[in-house]
Structure formats: C-alpha cells, structure tokens
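Budget justification note: compute hours in this period were largely spent on complex prediction jobs such as the one shown. Inputs:
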Amino acid sequence: MTESEQQAEKSKRLPRAVREKQILDAAVTVFARHGYHPASMDEVSEVAGVSKPMIYSYLGSKEDLFLQCIRREANRLIEAVRTGIDVDVAADMQLWTGLRAFYGFVAEHRASWTVLHQQALAVGEKFAAEVTALRSHAIEMVTKLVVSEGSRKGLGEQAEFSGEGLSAALVGAAEALADWWLDHPDLSPGVLASWLMNLTWLGFNDLVQGQVWRPS
Amino acid sequence: MTESEQQAEKSKRLPRAVREKQILDAAVTVFARHGYHPASMDEVSEVAGVSKPMIYSYLGSKEDLFLQCIRREANRLIEAVRTGIDVDVAADMQLWTGLRAFYGFVAEHRASWTVLHQQALAVGEKFAAEVTALRSHAIEMVTKLVVSEGSRKGLGEQAEFSGEGLSAALVGAAEALADWWLDHPDLSPGVLASWLMNLTWLGFNDLVQGQVWRPS
DNA sequence: CGGTATATATACCCCTGAGTAACCTGACGC
DNA sequence: GCGTCAGGTTACTCAGGGGTATATATACCG
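Corresponding output:
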C-alpha cells in the first residue's frame, strides 16, 4: 500500500475541494454509464465514496450536479483543443492539429465525451444549451478558418453564406466519427483525423482520383 | 362540422389498428418533446385521446412502446431515402438524391427525427442498438457507393480500408447538419444537401479554389 | 481541555409515475 | 332477447429515488 493510499484511507476528513472533485468524477462516470435519469444519487455517492447529503451540501441538486459535470468537461475539452492548435500555421494544418487534439481528448476521457455528446443533449433545454454553446464555439472556430481561407482566395460572399453550414457539417462529422470510434477502438486518433482531413479538405472526388492529403 | 368529424366524435369505439396508430403518433410526439424518461404514460394517453390501460393492452410496457416508435420511424426514414435514390445514375447523383430525400423526411417529420437521433441513443443499449443499425445501414449504402467508385478508378485496397470511416463521417455530417437545421429553419433541404455535396464531394480545398459541385 | 464549526453518516419522508384490477358498454351472432 | 367478446374507463397499488432532519465525530482555536 502506497503512502498516498494510506493517507486516503486514514484521514477521512478531507477538504471540500477534494470531495467536490471526487463527487464530480463519480458523477461523470455514473451519468456516462446510465444516462441522467436512470442514474441515482445513491450510486453517485457510492462511487464517490461519500454519503448522499454531502453531495447536496456541496454541489446542490441532481440538476445542479449534472450541469456542473457538463460545464467542467466542456471546459476541459475546449482547453485541450485550444492548446492543441498552433495558430501560426496554414489553415489545413490548424484543422489537422485541432482534430488530433480533439480525438486525443476523447480517447483519454471517454466518459466525459459520452456525457457531453450523448446524454446532455437528450435531457432538457437547459443542458442542451450548454452543449450547443460548446458546439457553436467549435463551429465558429472552423468557420473563421474557412472564411478567412476562402476570402484570401477572393471568395468573399460565397464563403460567408455557406461557411457556417459547412463548418457545422465538419464538426458534426468529427463528432460522429468519435462515436463510431467506440465501436472500432483499434484505430489511432491520427487515423481518424486524417480521414476527416481527406474527406473534408479534399473531398470524395479528389480521393477517388487518387489524391491524398497529408500534413506538410 | 364535417361528416368525418362527426364520425370521429360520435363513434368512440374504433378498431384496434386505428388506436394503435393514434397511440404511436402521440408517443412519438411526447417522447420528442420530453425525452424517454421524463415522458409519462399519462401524457401519452392524454395526447392520444385514449386511457392508459389501452396502451398497455395494445402496445405493452413503456419500453415496448418506445421500441415500436423507434422501429416505425426508422423504417419510415429508410423507406423515404430508399425510394428517393435512383440507382441507375452516377455515384455523386445518387448521393445527392439520397441526401435530398433525407432532409425532406426530416423536414416533414421533425419529431420522428428528434426521437431517433437525440433520444434513442441516450436511453439504453437496447434502443441505441436500433439506431445504430439504422445508421450502419446508411453507412453501408454510402460505403458501397464510395468503394465501387474508388475501385472503378483503380484504388482497391485504399478505398476498402478507409471507405467505411469516410462514410461514417459523411453520415454523421448529414445528421449533424439536420440538427443544426433546427436552429436555422429558413433553408431548403436542397441547400443543405448541396452544402454536404460540396464539402464531402469536392472538399474545402476545391471550394476555396472556387470550384462548386452542382447536379448534372 | 472545553467549545465551536465543519465534515460526515443514518434514517427517514413523500411524490411521481409505471403498471393493474375491477368494472362498464355497445355490437354482433344465434 | 341474451351471452360473450372486443373496446374502453376509473381508480387504485407500489417501488424507486430525490431530497432532508437529525445525529455524530474530528479538527482546530483559545
């Protein structure tokens, strides 16, 4: 038994911040496992190793708890992607690094992704709004990339009009591929990211002509 | 008051098939509105204009009811897309007509789409499996299209390897764009379908070069 | 060493909603 | 007319689980 485990077992009284983290971690796990409604606060408390009134005392109601899970995981995801992007390189390389960061996050935090993507949208307006905001954020980032690249080549209005829709499609494709990944786990984040680059940067037409996109 | 309305009001006793349809319609509406768990059988019975025991007598438990909703709507969607595709034209045109049929269906059956896409996946394995099967069906159709087009141009193994992933991404993009549409309703199915064609058939790179895909 | 605030647990309340028992009623065959 | 069966309802049971009142233990401060 390591010293830290001894520590954890002996000193039962822990500072609030630690307990809150434990509870949120447990909540994400449980919500990912069952979904919001079937998940019981009893199970959360059990997984967290803490009694139920603690949860209510620290994090509030079940809705509050869920909301804080979503917010925390959304921020983590944003942070992971944001730090993965190098804003000083070409548009396609920015997309590439962003995608790799995204799939890297999903690989490391499956439960977070499940809660964000599959559960939060289904529960109610309030929670869906959080995820929609996250998605809008992603779409906006991609839109900027596409529009600036398009207008750099002199396609002002055309790019403005369809840029957001195209970006929504790309972001959706990335999310869908993350889900699909759960059924095909023997692939690396890089492979997924490169498929998306090939599909959306080059398109089927170029692909069937034998063209392939690769990082420069 | 028309005669049929009189009919509907007076003759309270209706054949089983009619009631079952009323109940399923109501269930889809209610499940789309609240999601599976918060939806109550009482509300379904109220919307259906039928008392609760009828539902249990005709369609079984809440789970049974939900499952039958999913199955019915999934079959409707498949049918709508399948009949929308002309298998005798070029690959890109098949994709184009299929996408238009898909968005046409979503436009006409918003509640069906919500239940299938946002709710069914979140409730549990059993239901997710139904939707996954539906999605796999779609992915398979696209994969065939892509692989046959790719191998026609002599790209056998490469297309085989990544074809399914690329198709999953395309199908996911189509689904995501359908969701995005709910927030931007003033667009036609054709516009959405053409964005997807431009993005996935041509790709960003061709687009920013000024190329555009259009139906032949 | 008391006293107080904080950390934590036990045991309970009570509402919501799935599922059902028991009962009604009109139509149709004989 | 009258049994009988499908169509239909009202009014109930009962478990699960969100949320809390109450009690207890431990650290820290003077």
